[in-house]
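Customer escalation, tier 2.

The customer says the design service returned an amino acid string that "doesn't look like it belongs to this structure." They asked us to rerun it and document both sides in this ticket. The original structure tokens are below, unchanged.
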């Protein structure tokens, strides 16, 4: 659906972030589940916020938008290797006559990154080349899942917390995955996502003096392992487990949707 075809009145928020990430969002998040588009007249990337009447409080719209943007930031970091988080610039209401009422605004920092896309073609019935339908990008699939799966949503929010790259931030993110897997009657090791040695080394380092003042609990819960895990190794370990878990959750969710006869992954 083109911008001109979107229903009015509607609430929107102006997204701020890296140009490459904004371009990706505007290109791929184009369905009702989470609609984002580029307004060429203002050079803004806008996220449509549904579920609010024109009489709604801008504050309530901002709260809802902030939650969505935080989730999107986590998705971009995990699935698109985003280096910066998104933020909400302006909250605005587009009226039936097309006028805009802006309720908040902030400065924009511009970047110069560009994302390129390749089109795959195949011979058609008459010998002409036709585009091969491409699957939705991981960001769209993951954002769709996070909107309906509170455990995945929690993981996405933790991934962009200020301390996400520290021991104090890595352990809660790992525990979300571990508890989910244990609740399903399995384990990270049984699933082949990490070895028992890797997991023990991570946990013992995080909960011992080996992690220093930034340890998970701030006190010595375990004796330091003989070969403590460095912080960089811990980040790589958690990222490895997180990616494997996400792949499994996506497969399970999309298989269930496919079995139900639904093919639009962008629907909530």
């Amino acid at each position: 659906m083109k911008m001109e075809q979107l229903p009015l009145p509607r609430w929107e928020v102006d997204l701020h972030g890296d140009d490459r990430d904004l371009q990706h969002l505007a290109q791929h998040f184009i369905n009702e589940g989470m609609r984002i588009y580029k307004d060429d007249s203002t050079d803004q990337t806008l996220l449509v916020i549904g579920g609010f009447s024109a009489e709604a409080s801008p504050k309530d719209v901002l709260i809802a938008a902030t939650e969505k943007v935080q989730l999107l930031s986590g998705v971009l970091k995990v699935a698109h290797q985003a280096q910066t988080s998104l933020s909400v610039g302006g909250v605005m209401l587009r009226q039936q006559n097309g006028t805009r009422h802006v309720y908040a605004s902030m400065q924009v920092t511009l970047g110069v990154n560009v994302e390129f896309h390749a089109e795959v073609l195949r011979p058609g019935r008459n010998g002409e080349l036709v585009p091969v339908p491409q699957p939705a990008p991981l960001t769209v699939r993951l954002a769709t899942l996070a909107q309906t799966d509170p455990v995945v949503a929690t993981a996405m929010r933790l991934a962009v917390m200020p301390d996400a790259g520290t021991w104090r931030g890595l352990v809660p993110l790992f525990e979300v995955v571990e508890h989910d897997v244990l609740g399903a009657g399995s384990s990270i090791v049984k699933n082949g996502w990490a070895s028992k040695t890797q997991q023990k080394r991570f946990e013992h380092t995080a909960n011992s003096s080996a992690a220093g003042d930034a340890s998970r609990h701030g006190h010595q819960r375990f004796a330091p392992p003989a070969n403590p895990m460095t912080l960089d190794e811990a980040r790589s370990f958690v990222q490895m487990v997180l990616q494997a878990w996400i792949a499994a959750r996506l497969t399970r969710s999309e298989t269930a949707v496919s079995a139900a006869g639904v093919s639009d992954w962008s629907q909530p």
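Tier 2 assessment: The sequence is consistent with the input. Residues 3-102 form one domain. The two ends are 17 Å apart (CA to CA). Sent an explanation to the customer and offered a walkthrough call.
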